[in-house]
């Protein structure tokens, strides 16, 4: 996550990975695809 400009927050036995903020939804979707390709298969775009 850190190598993609994000950070990891532990909580409740799980880890939340957050990337962004992004200027457009398209940028966020591109980052989601990169995250999924890096092994974060459950990556989602939220606002």
Verbal overview:
The structure is a single chain. The chain is α+β, with helices and mostly antiparallel strands. It has one domain (2-37). 28% of the residues lie in helices and 21% in strands. It has one helix and two strands. It has one helix spanning 25-37; strands at residues 7-11, 14-18. The mean pLDDT is 85.
Biggest β-sheet: strands ordered side by side in the sheet = 1-2
Oligomer: single chain
How many strands in all?
Answer: 2
Mean pLDDT across every amino acid position: 85
- Roughly what percent helix? 25-40%
- What sequence of helices (H) and strands (E) makes up the elements? EEH
Query: What structural class do helix, strand and pairing data support?
Result: alpha+beta
Distance between the termini: 19 Å
Low-pLDDT runs of 5+ residues are none
Strand content: 15-25%
Task: Count the domains.
Answer: 1
What does the overall shape look like? globular
Total count of helical runs of at least 4 residues? 1
Q: Major beta sheet, specifics?
A: 2 strands, antiparallel
Spell out the blueprint of helices and strands:
Elements: E1 7-11, E2 14-18, H1 25-37
Antiparallel strand pairs: 1-2
List keywords for this structure.
globular, 1 helix, two-stranded antiparallel ribbon, 28% helix, 2 strands, alpha+beta, 47 residues
């Amino acid at each position: 996550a850190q190598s993609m400009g994000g950070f990891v927050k532990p909580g409740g036995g799980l880890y939340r990975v957050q990337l962004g903020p992004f200027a457009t939804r398209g940028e966020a979707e591109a980052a989601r695809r990169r995250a999924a390709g890096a092994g974060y298969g459950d990556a989602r775009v939220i606002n």
